[in-house]
């Protein structure tokens, strides 16, 4: 704490700082430290869960850049991740080292994303959602039928990632890779949204006409948004397939696109922190429900299929309840909590 | 205050007694079962698009485990079978798999669908956990690609080849028989088509048509495909899909007066087809891997005993057999020393002509070839029932491995 009852800025640069107080910085440092020593403290199973969470956070954050910040709804995000994953896998087969291969995957995804972003100049809202859904269906078709590049229905087998001779051959080692990538992706997005580009994106989201009058080239910036978002999605996709060392098209279906959209809606649109919270919440919810169901089926044996059905229902119910009681996402609740404690116990 | 004192005493007593009860319960099984149980994970679709066949399959695996445990387990060690629902979702499959492997330390997995099996193909090889799937994709039989995958039915491609061979051998018409393929545009549907076309040409068929009908199709959705196929007059029409999509296709065929010999793949035809398609199902052929309920084989007597004579689908028999074959491997591996996934794999690869009590054709695995056998049980719907026509078998050709 700095001994003041608020934060006062004397310059715009100060206002735009990520972490405005020493307290925030130390909290973050402790959090990062915990993340760094996490694999040494928990069972491998929990590490695999965290890996899934990290990848979801990456994917959700990249979608939030497009949908939350720039206002362009995309139902094809998982397919763009798939493009990144398949391109990376092919680059690895050609003998390109891991990091350049991932970059190549991201670039391929960016190109495809920008191509399918072209209709966004004319289409808005629900119409754009449908046109990006078409992208999802077309790309899914390509994943299944372009046997030479995607391995068709049997997919592509990968080898553990290798960077400068270091092989990430266990879940714990890959955890650090995923953590590093997630931090990079989040930093990129956070920095991007406080730049000229970010302000243009927000202007387009808030009202396209005003943005254009203010000098924002709508088409250009919408395409930028699609490009950057797809680039990061491609990287997330490349990471995703390195969880199991297998590229299969079932990881990039429309259900996943909807899941990523749900993550940013539950977490909070137009907020990096919201993407993180949504990613964590939506990835952990099925795991927690699974553990509850497993312990229940231990008590009542032979009802696994009934529990399975109930679990789906509970998952849906939680999301609906969230939308009713927390329409602005988890990040809004978090801000309220922070505001409450900032002035505690002298609320005024 | 006195009341609270009494309450405290009562609570303390209750806690003490509960504690004793708990101890007693915990000690009892320890005394009874001296040997440590063997943990096996079950990852089967109990919900989602394939749950209609997943549930009977899971029941079969469970019955198989119960049968093994009732008959001395694995060299005296019982099997602890943990069943979880994968719902045909890769994300959930990964989570369950990781929990089984890293937390529960299972020796092997009884898996199920194509999506999850394909997704875990490389992971199980790294973790050295054999996976008995019910996704019979040919690429899973090639140990060079999928060293830890096993299953007890011949692969989808060989199933289709068996159908083609049988039909060619029994074809009475003139000229080359004409063949058409109807399947969902989906990894599972597409898998055997290339192999089927290649073998059809090799046998001297004329490939006349190819249509996609999705897994969730209704009769009306199948109409366009059927009307196009009718023009091409195929003698042999292959249907890949699930029972639901098959019902839609054959009902549409009947309504449109399309006459052909339908051959339906293993998941596309079961006891439900007659209920869904009625008369249209009459005469449809289907390649199956396991005996239907009530068949006159020793294994079926056991299944009947474990199901109290309540008829089960053929998927049940396959689940049951999958558990039996895994147990054969477990017995060998356990007798040789520490029971690990790797030891189980090595043991399974020594199995030669395992008799599954007549439930399936005999099963063998070698380190170079995980094709369990090269045969199918060809059934036909006659009078609303699946009737065994013939056991068809092909030679084990090396160039077919994994394709």
Key terms for this structure?
heterodimer, A: about 350 residues, mainly alpha, 15 helices, B: about 400 residues, alpha/beta, Rossmann fold, seven-stranded mixed beta sheet, five-stranded parallel beta sheet, globular
CATH uppermost class of the largest domain in chain B: Alpha Beta
Rg value of chain A? 21 Å
Low-confidence stretches of chain B: 13-33
- With strands numbered from the N-terminus, the spatial order across the biggest sheet of chain B is 7-6-8-9-10-11-12
Write down how many β-strands of chain B occur, each being a DSSP E stretch of 2 or more residues: 12
Please indicate the percent range of residues of chain B in DSSP E strands (runs of 2 or more). 15-25%
Helix/strand-derived category of chain A reads mainly alpha
What share of the residues of chain B lie within helices?
A: 40-55%
Mean pLDDT rating of chain A: 88
- The tally of strands of chain A reads 4
The biggest sheet of chain B, with number of strands, parallel, antiparallel or mixed sense and barrel status, is: 7 strands, mixed
Our Rg estimate of chain B from Cα atoms comes to 24 Å
Task: Note down, in words, how this protein is organized.
The complex is a heterodimer of chains A (348) and B (403). By secondary structure, chain A is mainly alpha-helical. Chain A has a domain at 38-266. Chain A is built from 15 helices and 4 strands. In chain A, the strands form 2 sheets. Chain A has a two-stranded antiparallel sheet with strand order 1-4. In chain A, a hairpin with a 2-residue loop joins strand 2 (162-163) and strand 3 (166-167). In chain A, helix 4 (77-93) runs antiparallel to helix 5. The mean pLDDT of chain A is 88. Chain B is an alpha/beta fold. Chain B folds into 2 domains: 38-154 and 297-372, Response regulator (Rossmann fold); 157-288 and 396-400, Response regulator (Rossmann fold, 3-Layer(aba) Sandwich). Helix content of chain B is 45%, strand content 16%. Chain B has helices at residues 2-32, 51-70, 90-103, 114-127, 156-169, 187-190, 193-203, 219-232, 243-255, 272-277, 298-306, 314-336, 341-348, and strands at 38-44, 79-85, 108-110, 131-132, 149-150, 178-183, 206-212, 236-239, 261-264, 285-288, 375-382, 385-393. In chain B, the strands form 2 sheets. In chain B, strands 7-6-8-9-10-11-12 form a 7-stranded mixed β-sheet, with helices on both faces. In chain B, strands 2-1-3-4-5 form a 5-stranded parallel β-sheet, with helices on both faces. In chain B, helix 2 links the parallel strand 1 and strand 2. The longest helix of chain B is centred in the N-terminal third of the chain and has 31 residues, at 2-32. The termini of chain B are far apart. Classes of the chains: A mainly alpha (348), B alpha/beta (403). Chain A binds chain B through residues 43-45, 48-49, 52, 141, 144, 152-155, 157-158, 169, 171, 243-246, 248-251, 255-256, 286-287, 290, 293-294, 297, 304-305, 307-309, 311-312, and chain B through 46-47, 51, 55, 58, 82-85, 87, 89-92, 94-96, 98-99, 101-103, 114-115, 118-123, 126, 137, 139, 145, 185-188, 190-191.
């Amino acid at each position: 704490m700095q001994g003041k009852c608020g934060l006062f800025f004397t310059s715009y640069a100060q206002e735009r700082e990520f972490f405005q107080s020493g307290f925030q910085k130390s909290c973050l440092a402790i959090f990062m430290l915990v993340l760094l020593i996490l694999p040494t403290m928990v069972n491998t199973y929990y590490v695999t869960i965290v890996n899934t969470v990290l990848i979801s956070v990456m994917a959700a954050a990249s979608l939030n850049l497009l949908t939350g910040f720039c206002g362009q709804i995309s139902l094809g995000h998982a397919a763009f991740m798939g493009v990144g994953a398949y391109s990376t896998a092919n680059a690895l087969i050609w003998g390109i080292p891991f990091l350049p291969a991932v970059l190549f995957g991201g670039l391929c995804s960016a190109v495809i994303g920008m191509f399918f972003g072209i209709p966004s100049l004319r289409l808005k809202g629900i119409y754009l959602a449908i046109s990006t859904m078409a992208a999802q269906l077309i790309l899914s078709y390509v994943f299944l039928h372009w046997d030479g590049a995607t391995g068709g229905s049997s997919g592509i087998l990968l080898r553990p990632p290798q960077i400068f001779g270091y092989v990430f051959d266990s879940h714990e080692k890959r955890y650090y890779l995923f953590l590093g990538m997630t931090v990079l992706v989040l930093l990129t997005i956070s920095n991007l949204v406080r730049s000229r580009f970010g302000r243009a994106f927000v202007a387009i989201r808030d009202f396209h006409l005003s943005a254009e009058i203010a000098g924002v080239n709508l088409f250009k910036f919408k395409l930028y948004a699609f490009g950057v978002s797809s680039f990061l999605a491609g990287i997330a996709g490349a990471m995703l397939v390195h969880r199991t060392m297998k590229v299969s098209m079932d990881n990039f279906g429309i259900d996943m696109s909807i899941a990523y959209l749900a993550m940013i809606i539950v977490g909070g649109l137009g907020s990096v922190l919201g993407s993180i919270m949504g990613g964590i919440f939506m990835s952990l919810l099925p795991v927690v429900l699974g553990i509850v169901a497993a312990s229940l089926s231990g008590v009542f044996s032979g009802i696994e299929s009934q529990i399975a059905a109930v679990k789906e229902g509970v998952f849906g119910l939680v999301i609906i309840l969230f939308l009713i009681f927390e329409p602005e996402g988890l990040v809004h609740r978090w801000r309220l909590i922070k505001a409450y404690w900032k002035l505690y116990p002298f609320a005024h | 205050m006195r009341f609270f004192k009494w309450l405290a005493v009562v609570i303390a007593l209750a806690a003490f007694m509960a504690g004793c009860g708990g101890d007693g319960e915990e000690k009892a099984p320890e005394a009874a079962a001296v040997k440590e149980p063997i943990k096996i994970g079950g990852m089967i679709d109990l919900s989602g698009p394939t749950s209609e066949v997943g549930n009977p399959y899971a029941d079969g695996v469970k019955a198989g485990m119960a049968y093994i445990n009732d008959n001395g387990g694995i060299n005296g060690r019982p099997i602890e079978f943990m069943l979880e629902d994968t719902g045909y979702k890769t994300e959930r499959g990964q989570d369950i798999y990781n929990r089984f492997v890293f937390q529960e330390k299972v020796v092997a997995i009884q898996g199920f669908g194509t999506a999850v099996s394909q997704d875990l193909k490389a992971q199980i090889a790294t973790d050295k956990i054999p996976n008995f799937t019910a996704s019979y994709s040919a690429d899973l039989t090639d140990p060079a690609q999928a060293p830890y995958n096993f299953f007890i039915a011949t692969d989808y491609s060989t199933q289709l080849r068996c159908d083609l061979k049988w039909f060619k051998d029994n074809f009475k018409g003139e000229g080359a028989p004409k063949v058409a393929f109807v399947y969902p545009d989906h990894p599972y549907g597409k898998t055997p088509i290339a192999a089927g076309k290649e073998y059809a040409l090799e046998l001297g068929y004329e490939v006349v048509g190819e249509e996609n009908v999705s897994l969730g199709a209704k009769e009306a959705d199948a109409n366009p495909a059927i009307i196009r196929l009718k023009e091409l007059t195929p003698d042999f029409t292959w249907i890949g899909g699930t029972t639901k999509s098959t019902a839609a296709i054959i009902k549409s065929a009947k309504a449109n007066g399309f006459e052909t010999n339908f051959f339906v793949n293993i998941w596309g035809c079961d006891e439900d087809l007659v209920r869904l398609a009625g008369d249209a199902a009459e005469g449809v052929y289907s390649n199956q891997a396991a005996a239907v309920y009530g068949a006159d084989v020793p294994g079926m007597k056991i299944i009947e005993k474990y199901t109290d004579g309540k008829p089960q689908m053929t998927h049940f028999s396959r689940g049951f057999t999958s558990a039996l074959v895994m147990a054969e491997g477990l017995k060998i591996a356990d007798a040789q020393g520490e029971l690990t996934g790797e030891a189980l794999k090595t043991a399974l690869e020594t199995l030669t002509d395992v008799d599954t009590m007549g439930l399936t054709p005999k099963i063998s695995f070698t380190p170079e070839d995980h094709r369990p056998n090269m045969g199918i049980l060809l059934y036909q719907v006659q009078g609303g029932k699946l009737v065994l026509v013939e056991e068809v078998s092909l030679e084990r050709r090396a160039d077919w491995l994994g394709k």
